[in-house]
Amino acid sequence: MQNLKNRATREKLFKASWYRAEKGDENDTRAILEKTAKLKMDKAHLMGKSSYAELNLMDQMAKKPENALKLLSQLANPAVAQAKKESDDIQKLIDEQKGGFSLEPWDWNFYAEQVRKAKYDLDENQIKPYFEVSTVLEKGVFFAAEKFYGITFKERKDLPVYHPDVVAYEVFDRDGKSLAIYYLDFYTRDNKNGGAWMSNFVEQSFTTNTKPVIVNVFNYQKPAPGKPSLISYDDVSTMFHEFGHTLHGLFANQKYVTISGTNVPRDFVEFPSQINEFFALEPAVLKNYALHYETKQPMPTALVEKIKKAATFNQGYATTELVSAATLDMAWHSVTSENQFKPTLEFEKDVLQKYGFTLPQVPPRYHSPYFAHIWGGGYSAGYYAYMWSDMLNSAAWDWIKNNGGMTRENGDRFRKYILSVGNSVDLNQAFRDFTGKDPEITPLLKDKGFVK
Ligand SMILES: [Zn+2]
């Protein structure tokens, strides 16, 4: 959509996608999903709960659907207001180009990209020479972890690897003792899944007396032989993100595997990873790793500022489409009696209206008939979890900034209360232990650029 110059083609593509599962043919999902929603409600009733959301949230940090909905509604209004401003910017551009039409959902990405270029003048090719993959890893990701947590890393060329591209490190704790083995698999291959993730080959447990063995997998483009591997800022951010999951696994300190490390509720699991992304732009960290691969010069301040400014670009749109999808999910699974159900499209329309998602140019990221995460993907009444984790990491980072920043003391504190406890304690209490209070929404609204 971002690259299609022909407006009619964009519209055709958008509609083909949007209406894909409601054409009255054998791929129409509406009857099945209405039945699925009802069966989930019946299951909750059998378990003594009023709705599926209530059943599902019992062991999550949010605990009750009301708490998840409260968070979503706190995000909805500012997000929609910001998206409205963004849509005005785009309409202005369309008018300047004498487009002669009103902005529609299929135009958004195409024009947003032009607004981005005009407003931030940020060119990937300017940035990439400063992000060489092993420098980002060792002088950025590892450096931040050494500074904050006191852990160190040593490459182990003697350990077996499953592909020649994979590298292995031994991780040492603050007292110099061996803590874990950490594998990295950077480059894309034909037979490899897309995306980036962390997983444990071996999980920490005192019962089985095992230390963690962890892998981070990425899909960076492998450079030609002899050429440096230069990555985008998004890729840098992903590396810090996945390493945040790794830290959660590394510092696991539990008797049982099932509650150790990253085996935590879904609305908590992205907290350690997302908070680690903040380190990428910490001045002390950035100046250590963002070095031009040829000249070894640090990134010019003007370029750093551009990256920081561009971080809040299009957040109105991105947040609105996510929060509206999460609200739809919560609404479908909060139904308590059969007569509250309506035909799929009507149900969706009413929910979006009720919760203030009234900007037609920004539809929910997933439309009910093909919202696979919540019908078959295990995210039923769980899609809000991304936003919940987001609230936690913004609030915790805010606390760190206001209490001395990247100190070893704060690192130890974060490790003690958040990263080492797995799911062995009440995580709401763990958060309070760390920051002294419940998480608030304001830091997240600030990070997204919705409030000053
Ligand atoms: Zn993640």
If you had to describe this structure to a student in words, what would you say it looks like?
Helix 4 (65-96) packs antiparallel against helix 13 (315-333) and helix 7 (133-149) packs across helix 8. The longest helix is centred in the first third of the chain and has 32 residues, at 65-96. The chain is of the alpha+beta class and 452 residues long. A 5-stranded mixed beta sheet has the order 1-2-3-5-4, with helices on one face. The protein has helices spanning 7-18, 30-46, 52-57, 65-96, 108-120, 124-127, 133-149, 233-250, 266-269, 271-277, 283-289, 301-310, 315-333, 344-354, 372-375, 385-402, 408-419, 427-435, 442-447; strands at 152-155, 167-172, 178-187, 197-202, 213-220. The mean pLDDT is 96. The chain folds into 2 domains: 7-121 and 313-385, Neurolysin, domain 3 (Orthogonal Bundle); 131-281, Neurolysin, domain 3. The two termini are 31 Å apart. 41% of the residues are buried. The site of zinc ion has 4 residues, from helix 8. InterPro entries: M3A_DCP (IPR034005), MetalloPept_cat_dom_sf (IPR024079), Neurolysin/TOP_dom2 (IPR024077), Pept_M3A_M3B (IPR045090), Pept_M3A_M3B_dom (IPR001567). Belongs to the peptidase M3 family. Keywords: Hydrolase, Metal-binding, Metalloprotease, Protease, Zinc.
